[in-house]
Amino acid sequence: MKKTLLTAFLLAPFLAMAQSGNTQDLTQYVNPMIGTAKMGHTYPGATVPFGMVQLSPDTDTIPYEVNGQYNKDVYKYCAGYQYDDPTIVGFSHTHFSGTGHSDLGDFLLMPTTGKLQLNPGTEDKPESGYRSAFSHQNEKAEPGYYRVQLDDHNITAELTATNRVGMHQYTFPEKEEAHVILDLMHGIYNYDGKNVWTFVRVENDTLVTGYKQTNGWARTRTVYFAMSFSKPIKSYGNKDFSEPQVYKGFWRKFDQEHNFPEFAGTKLRAYFNFDVEAGEQLQVKFALSPVSTEGALANMQAEAPGWDFEGVRRQSQALWNKELNKIQVKTLAKEDLVNFYTAMYHTFLGPTTYMDVDGKYRGLDQNIHQAEGFTNYTTFSLWDTYRALHPFFNIVQPKRNADMVKSMLAHYDQSVHRMLPVWSHHANENWCMIGYHSVPVIADAIIKDNADFDVERALEACVQTARTRYYDGLDYYMDMGYVPEDKNGSSVSKTLEYAYDDWCIAQMAKKLGRQELYEEFIQRSQNYKNVYDARTGYMRPKLSDGTWKKEFDPLDTHGQGFIEGNSWNYSLYVPHDPATMIGMMGGKHRFAQHLDSLFTMELPDKYFANTEDISRDGIIGNYVHGNEPSHHVAYLYNWTDEPWKTQERTRMILKAMYKPTVDGLGGNDDCGQMSAWYIFSALGFYPVAPGSEQYAIGSPAVKEARIQLENGKTFIIHTKNQRDKNVYVQRMELNGKPLNRSYLTHSELAKGGELTFYMGAKPNKKQVSMP
Amino acid sequence: MKKTLLTAFLLAPFLAMAQSGNTQDLTQYVNPMIGTAKMGHTYPGATVPFGMVQLSPDTDTIPYEVNGQYNKDVYKYCAGYQYDDPTIVGFSHTHFSGTGHSDLGDFLLMPTTGKLQLNPGTEDKPESGYRSAFSHQNEKAEPGYYRVQLDDHNITAELTATNRVGMHQYTFPEKEEAHVILDLMHGIYNYDGKNVWTFVRVENDTLVTGYKQTNGWARTRTVYFAMSFSKPIKSYGNKDFSEPQVYKGFWRKFDQEHNFPEFAGTKLRAYFNFDVEAGEQLQVKFALSPVSTEGALANMQAEAPGWDFEGVRRQSQALWNKELNKIQVKTLAKEDLVNFYTAMYHTFLGPTTYMDVDGKYRGLDQNIHQAEGFTNYTTFSLWDTYRALHPFFNIVQPKRNADMVKSMLAHYDQSVHRMLPVWSHHANENWCMIGYHSVPVIADAIIKDNADFDVERALEACVQTARTRYYDGLDYYMDMGYVPEDKNGSSVSKTLEYAYDDWCIAQMAKKLGRQELYEEFIQRSQNYKNVYDARTGYMRPKLSDGTWKKEFDPLDTHGQGFIEGNSWNYSLYVPHDPATMIGMMGGKHRFAQHLDSLFTMELPDKYFANTEDISRDGIIGNYVHGNEPSHHVAYLYNWTDEPWKTQERTRMILKAMYKPTVDGLGGNDDCGQMSAWYIFSALGFYPVAPGSEQYAIGSPAVKEARIQLENGKTFIIHTKNQRDKNVYVQRMELNGKPLNRSYLTHSELAKGGELTFYMGAKPNKKQVSMP
């Protein structure tokens, strides 16, 4: 007791310092290039935390379809940039971070010199188009800043951003005529017909406005822009690349290609010519809006009124430092700092701001709405992010997380289905993946008392969502207690995830005193049992007649009743009730053996071809870290008598799956979920079941971490005897008192304080397992 | 003097009566079927004066292109309806009246019974689709009301409308399952690719919302809707008719065709099923908005909150009677009443309301604007309507005409070109035809003191428009004084019309004391002289080297430097200075002979094929009444010594070109211009040069007309000795005093009073001609 008080006393000045601006330059440890090779699907460009604009180079123009066939190469370009590519096509203003399907890439700008070329050209012949060769030696990426030398045009291009404005700076070493290409045909996951409409007005000799409407992952998506040049346009033009057509002859009855200030169509490229002096810098501001060109212009005027590229860059980096400083860590090696802060950087890339500075945004009904008292966000990759990203936000971004819930509730209000988002971006539900995982996000916020939103309405939205019979097999699930594989594919994954989501609803209902709802949904949460085949010991697809599907290979991922995971992995997906699951699967000892096999077996090669979204490196044995369904699995040892194996495995995964290299991510970062797993695990605990107060204990990889909470408190993690080989927790103290259990609670963390891990090279086999 | 006072005294009680509601049922004389056969291009459906909704049957689905070739049959369907067609495809909610190019036909609804069919079928086999045979015996059209029996489905369909809401009533004689088809692929002047996007939400079991975006005559056009059924939908669905495509596979991962409340795409048809009892009436309200589905719904709630079809019909007809009663006429025959009030009906069909009940509307910049203190209008067919329609509005609709000018100024403010509208509809400039004829509309309003708008700003807008060098040959016109045919086609028509428009600017400048502008534009207004070839006596295309174009056939319409008129007709186009023109062309006598030839020559057949937009009946000799450039021509005799020929010709044209039959219009009604010519001429005067105070005197066809002015005054026209053969004006009295001239001024008219024509069967050859 005495010691605790002393500690608190000693901490007081340090806390004060942290609060009053003991801000370190942590951006130095962030390397935005990490994940840009292979399957990470991150982008290296400029953005601010949760920013609307992601201004980043795109290195090729790979269409989704070629000759009516799916083009599998498109997948590499989910974030527009592939590290191994030798050319840059240009800089577009919207990108997803780490997704496994894609969209966006709006409004590609490319500065060129020499002959005006309006096609992008090809990678092997960059001189055949406006694209340029570049080399990584002449490339630099920092939070909020990106620079590259465009070799073919002898231009240094620099990028920075505010929330809603991308800012370009092009330096021309020679006096010549320069062109800025605005390619409205460019896009990520592009295909013929994706551009529904584009519309451009040259408002005056420095200002251009317009919009682009696409039919892609978001089916009905419109982005507006306002683009401003730092010097007057000398001349300009546009070209329509669409097929000749009788009707179009009616238009353009006089020259509307040259210096004609209005053009519209589906396949347009525009160019703007400037005379530049040797050494001259041309700046371009490019503001976005989900509402209107008027909104985009207001965003520009509010956020980047002047022509101070360096100022915007500094401001952007300051925003990053503010967020990154929410956790100050000490590590054994610098590369761990790079891993840690790059992970934090990745977690703060989304969800993204989706409203104008005046609070207006486009809703799912395509009408314009006003965000009253909250920031409206989009890019909800919820099947991924409910697991660790939103729980992480409940620690370091509770205000933003509550606003994200408010954004989901606005989505619900606007949804004609009366459903919370499944996977939504830019005023669209794209129905990607399965489940209704807005529910655990909301439950986690409510259970962790970070519910600065209307909780009754939130519960209502969750219940209504969970009762949408026509949604993806829910009718069968509600009527039969499972999704029958012959009626609806990926049926086991759906049954398991619905059951977990239902448990989350039950937890909220319980907390809010809604006993009837609690009963209904705690009952539904047991449905996972209906797809457990005791004979094989696996979760297994069941048919509508109640029999098991005959053909069954628990190692195969495809066509087996699962999605992004095989039965081996997915059979462990009962995050809300591991104890019962373990009992069902043969008890603690047998279950621990099962986990051991998962991590150590040799997966036959034939199964790799079928494993989505991850590189060969994303698999350890048969444990697939590169996809999400197993993210809690290493922590399940805590429910056996061998919690020390959680410690061992998680430290091993941290090393194996996260490297401070361009190809360092073992799979898609998935909007920060992979990175959030890193942060939690590096801190030594993990939210196995969001919607619960509990964090399962792992093994901290940091030496020390100071988590600055928004309530003014600080939670400090000390790791005694930290070494690479000392992965085993010997004992723990919370605020100086022994912590004899395998979990920490959120309320303990939220109060601030100190958690001390005492580490060692050998397991403490007497550690208390989870109840 | 005494007599004048007495007249005023006697009139007083009658005026009071007229003002206090001596409203006759004049809708009985309106036949909306007039002009629906051949080239009139009118539609027979339901609308209110200047209404946003024009709910009317479409009788076929003729595309603009077939196999990449222009399909000339499309032209017949400018208004969607052709009287000779045996089938009705359905009822769509937007139509132009009388245009010679087209667009719209939005949101086709069709009630059916029997097997659900989602394609329209063909005319020869209506049973092959949802369309239906019908017969004119079972069809009725009145202002604000339309009814037809759909033979194939045994349904009586009735239509009525408010300003922004179309209302349908379908009566089913038998108990059965009924379908309402919503065909989002349908459109007028349709072609593959015209539908840019359509988006639909089934909000609940009676309400559907959505929008349609097209790339047609209006390049970037979006119309929103809200549709409400009087009883709950039993079941519904949608079908996507677009080509299979790899990417689309991503969508619709579960059944989204049946009872799934959200669909979007480019080729969609939807259906809504209802069980109906024998004799049951299903009502549908269909509201439009240029802004949003929210706006459409608010429009519906404001204008048609209930389910009172008959009430809406009565209200619509009351609105018509209110407008039609602005001129109460007595005629020799009932068929003249039908001609007169049908003409008035046609003049009040547009421009059309283009804003929601809250004043919001879409601007040319595609942003949402608020109309402050005026009604925003669209559908400005200005090349047609500046001639007589807007001058007519300056008499009977000055408030609306001022709002139309305000709408044009809003267009100007939003135009990236800083130009007033040329031909605009639905937030688009479509650049149709030539000139900048917003200018005469504005000038006419200012000169006639109907300028309840910012006149300085209006003048500025006119000047700015007239100085847009890149617009359609204006650079040459400004630099060389004419448009050279080798640089820009239809060069003579353009030169002549620019010159007239410039004169209008000069008149405004003069009135507003802007001497410098007056000088500049009065100078430009003389440019018509630069294309007069004294050797041939015709206006003739000149080349950029100053020589006349060699090949020249003044009878031919095409490729001769003119548009919608040959040189014979267009050479008379100097409305602002007929006296000088007549002098230039050889003096009064020779000019009158020239006019005589125009009306009496026999035009060789080969020239008819080249004459646009009019039927064979639309030509008298070589005088083309069916197109606009000659509309002032019959009045030019007033500038010769033979004004009585104006009287003779105009009475002849009234008889020949306007008949109370379905094919009674000699050419496109052109948004009311043809009809406005009728009204003016039937009243006995015509605005030869809008922008001038003067109306040239013709020969009244009415026996009496009481024109109710908005200032509370009444202007009465008496025609003494009116007979069909008494076409010659013997003398006139204005307010009892002899009027010894060939014109009336607007200010005389605006004061109220009485104009008495004394008619006879022989010309008064001593009549005073125009100065």
Automatic annotation (TrEMBL), chains A, B:
<feature type="domain" description="Glycosyl hydrolase family 92 N-terminal">
    <location>
        <begin position="29"/>
        <end position="289"/>
    </location>
</feature>
<keyword id="KW-0106">Calcium</keyword>
<dbReference type="InterPro" id="IPR041371">
    <property type="entry name" value="GH92_N"/>
</dbReference>
<dbReference type="GO" id="GO:0005975">
    <property type="term" value="P:carbohydrate metabolic process"/>
</dbReference>
<comment type="subunit">
    <text>Monomer.</text>
</comment>
<dbReference type="InterPro" id="IPR012939">
    <property type="entry name" value="Glyco_hydro_92"/>
</dbReference>
<dbReference type="GO" id="GO:0005829">
    <property type="term" value="C:cytosol"/>
</dbReference>
<keyword id="KW-0378">Hydrolase</keyword>
<keyword id="KW-0732">Signal</keyword>
<protein>
    <submittedName>
        <fullName>Glycoside hydrolase family 92 protein</fullName>
    </submittedName>
</protein>
<dbReference type="InterPro" id="IPR050883">
    <property type="entry name" value="PNGase"/>
</dbReference>
<dbReference type="InterPro" id="IPR005887">
    <property type="entry name" value="GH92_a_mannosidase_put"/>
</dbReference>
<feature type="domain" description="Glycosyl hydrolase family 92">
    <location>
        <begin position="296"/>
        <end position="760"/>
    </location>
</feature>
<dbReference type="Pfam" id="PF17678">
    <property type="entry name" value="Glyco_hydro_92N"/>
</dbReference>
<dbReference type="Pfam" id="PF07971">
    <property type="entry name" value="Glyco_hydro_92"/>
</dbReference>
<dbReference type="GO" id="GO:0006516">
    <property type="term" value="P:glycoprotein catabolic process"/>
</dbReference>
<dbReference type="InterPro" id="IPR008928">
    <property type="entry name" value="6-hairpin_glycosidase_sf"/>
</dbReference>
<feature type="signal peptide">
    <location>
        <begin position="1"/>
        <end position="18"/>
    </location>
</feature>
<dbReference type="GO" id="GO:0000224">
    <property type="term" value="F:peptide-N4-(N-acetyl-beta-glucosaminyl)asparagine amidase activity"/>
</dbReference>
<dbReference type="InterPro" id="IPR014718">
    <property type="entry name" value="GH-type_carb-bd"/>
</dbReference>
<dbReference type="GO" id="GO:0030246">
    <property type="term" value="F:carbohydrate binding"/>
</dbReference>
